[in-house]
Design brief:
Blueprint: E1 2-8, H1 13-24, E2 29-35, E3 40-45, H2 50-64, E4 69-71
Antiparallel strand pairs: 1-3, 1-4, 2-3
Helix pairs in contact: 1-2
Amino acid sequence: MKKTFRLRDLDCANCAAKMENAINKLDGVQSATVSFMTQRLTLEADDARFDEVLKEAVRVCRKVEPDCTVLV
């Protein structure tokens, strides 16, 4: 399953790259892209575990950029 989510208050491209790298390392993630320019997260993960993977991705985003919110 592949879905795109808006990001609120993503402040820099460096943080977006850190988020993208960390999310791609999560178990169950097939691919993830974080775009600073469009303020979007595109996540492709296993259908059966998508919600669980999404929660982990949100946690990673908060860890890298505490002010950033993933609009689910």
